[in-house]
Amino acid sequence: MNQGAFIKRFTFLLLCGTILSANAQQKPNIIFILADDLGYGDLSCYGATKLHTPNIDRLAMQGVRFTNAHATSATCTPSRFAIMTGKYPWRQSGTDILPGDAALIIPTHKTTLPSLFKKAGYTTAMIGKWHLGLGTTIEKNWNTDVRPGPNEVGFDYSFIFPATADRVPAIFLENEKVVALEPGDTIRVNYHKKIGNEPTGKENPELLKMKSSPGQGHDNTIINGIGRIGFMDGGKTARWTDEELSFTFLNKAKEVIAGNKTTPFFLYLAVTEPHVPRMPATIFKGKSGLGFRGDAILQLDWTVGEIMKAVEDAGIADNTMIVFSSDNGPVLDDGYQDDAVTKANGHNPSAPMRGGKYSSYEAGTRIPFIAKWPHTIKPLVSDALLCQMDLMASFAALLNIDIAQQEDIDSENCLDALLGKTKQGRTILVEQGGPLAIIQKEWKYITPSAGEPYNKLVGIETGCAPVPQLYHLKNDIGEQNNLAEKYPEKVKELAELLDKIIKQKK
Ligand code: NG6
Ligand code: CA
Question: Is the per-residue pLDDT at 291 higher than 50?
Answer without folding.
Answer: yes
